[in-house]
What we know:
By secondary structure, this protein is an all-alpha fold.
Amino acid sequence: MANTKSAKKAAKQIARRTVTNRARRSRLRGAVRKVEEAIAAGDRSKALAAMAEAEPVIIRAAQKNIVHRNAARRKVSRLAHRIAELGKS
Length: 89
């Protein structure tokens, strides 16, 4: 357990941050899941609507250091490519 006053404060801050980060990560995964389900169903308009909601969530997660910025950009790019493939077929 934490011995110093600063270590106790740090432990409290970590606990507080963990709660918010867990919520943000959950929101991120849920948004991505909606897009992937729409893609799997082959519904392009639903996928585009879900992507419009998911992209800001993904980018915001990167800004808050929930995921790495390159990983977030890669996720957005790959989802966009998969939605574009729906339009071709």
